[in-house]
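Entry 14. Structure prediction run on the chain below.
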Amino acid sequence: MLPGRGRNGHGAREGRVAHVLGVRVAWTAVGDGEFFCPGCGGDRNYQRLTGRRRFTLVGVPLLPRGETGPVVECAACRRHYGMDVLDHPTTTRFSAMLRDAVHTVALAVLAAGGTCSRTPLETAAVAVRSAGIDDCTADRLGALVEALAADTGRVCGEPGGASLAIELHEALDPLAPHLAPTGRESLLLQAARIALADGPYTPAERDVLATVGTALTIHPDDVPRVLAAARTPF
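Output returned:
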């Protein structure tokens, strides 16, 4: 067999051709911001890039080959991701969403159950503080519930109707896709324990908790199970 005619010689020629001819992408930054980088596992700055492909000959760009992108490039690890990576909230944004959700749910349950008893207010204040609102107190929650009732003309302890359901969905709908099933159930369980702090569920409290379960995309068959589990001591 002549030199260069065998399998190894054929592969060598292909390698040389691939080295001579190629495609290069020239990236242009068209935006920036902060995102949660899956590669780094934390919040990072990013650039949004669009690119133009060009054939290259010995590394020199020649003919245009069309556009590519857009992509998101992490400023730290330099990896490229699809634009859907921006759908995931940053850690900072997620924490704010969770705080708002816990606060809204607590107010909804208190509004449904009334604020005559101190125990639900204290239970709710502990839950809200654990979510990151450090200055939350039972007195502040009680004042907010009374203000909401006066603003809507609704009596505490009565069903909240469509307006309360809308508020719960506004707080929970953006959060639910980013919570694991156990996280969604934990939020409902926390709400149920606020409701149970002064005795059995009232019909108004059950309505609110059912709305919370729906907004968190918990299956309707699982909501009664979580509500029953809330009766079990910690």
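The beta strands are 21-37, 42-57, 60-74, 80-81.
Filed with the rest of this week's runs.
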